[in-house]
User: Fold this.
Amino acid sequence: MAVEFSQYLPFWNKLTDDQKQRIADVVEYRQVEKGTRIHDSSSECIGLIMVHSGQLRTYILSEDGREITISRLFEYDTSLLSASCVMPDMQFNIMIEAEKDSKFWSIPACLFKNLTEESLAVSQYSQSLISSNFSELMWLMEQIMWKSMDKRLAEFLLEESRLEGSAVLKITHEKIANHLGTAREVITRMLRYFQSEEMVKLTRGAIEISDEKKLIELLAS
Assistant:
């Protein structure tokens, strides 16, 4: 198990034996339960996260405490969003939680930062990850500014159905609001509208997609 993390690092074969050993000596393998907060504003830098299994969610908090999802991390995904030590110019706090029981490795930020200074391959990989994270943030801003809430909600429901492999989603209105960065009341009103249009059926603690085609048509309109 300890050796498997190297498969997540495209620069591994370009490292010296000493650099490989320094990573192997400190890499941490963690198993966390659904709902565990892995990183928040009070946490030290985790560093590079490499997801072995499960599902993690990265999100930010507004000044009034409202959440909005930046991205989700799945098997073989990597992220530097928790490593403010590596990205000192980052001016917002990233939160990371487990949406499902998850397993992941992490390379401490201090070591990863040193490696970016020593190795061109690690530096290029780091810049690529940062660029990817920035693109995710820009995409999120575009969604918030230009896409209407009904389309954002329809897209979320379709994505959630695909991830869960089911048309019945056991998720609260509050949780959806946290993902989309809005108030629970807004989501409740929109879901009731979707129900009146026979796109979904609302039951206690669950949302059933009753007409996927209508949701897709809404996205395309």
Q: What stands out?
A: The first strand starts at residue 28 and ends at 32. The chain has a mean pLDDT of 87. The CA atoms of residues 109 and 149 lie 37 Å apart.
